[in-house]
Amino acid sequence: MIDVAVLEEVAEIFASRRDVDSALARFLDLARRIAGCEFGGIYLRDDTRAVFHRWAENRDTPSLHLPRELVEAVFAGVTQRAFNLDDPPLSELPAVQRAYAYNLHGALGLPLRHDDALVGVLALAFPTAATVPEPTLRVLTAVARFPAAAIVHARTQELAARRARLGTALRQFGERAVATSDVAALHQLILATTVELTGSDQASITEVEDGLVRVIAGIGKDAALVGTTAPAAMLLEALSAHNPYVVPDVSAGDPKQLLIKLAKRTGAASFMALAMRHRERVFGHLFAGAAESYRYHPEEVEAMRILASMSAAILEQRHAQAVADRLTRRLADTIEHLPILVEVFDGRGDFVLGNAASQVLRDRLGLARGTALAPCGAVRVTQLDGELLPPELLPPAQALRGIHPSPREVVLLKPDGAPLATTLMAAAPIFAVDGKTVESVVLAFQDVSALHELAQEKERFLRVAAHELRTPLTALHATTQLIEVDPAAFDDPERRQGLLARLRRQSLRLVRLVEQLLDSVRVDGELPLRPSDVDLTAMCRDVVDMILTSDGPRAVVDAAAGAVVGRWDAVRIEQVVTNLVSNAVRYSPADGLIHVVVERDGDRARLSVRDDGIGIPAAQLDQLFTPFFRGSNAQRANAGGLGLGLHIAREIVHRHGGTIEVASRENGGTTFTVLLPLGAAQVS
Question: Which pLDDT does position 72 carry in this prediction?
Answer without folding.
Answer: 93
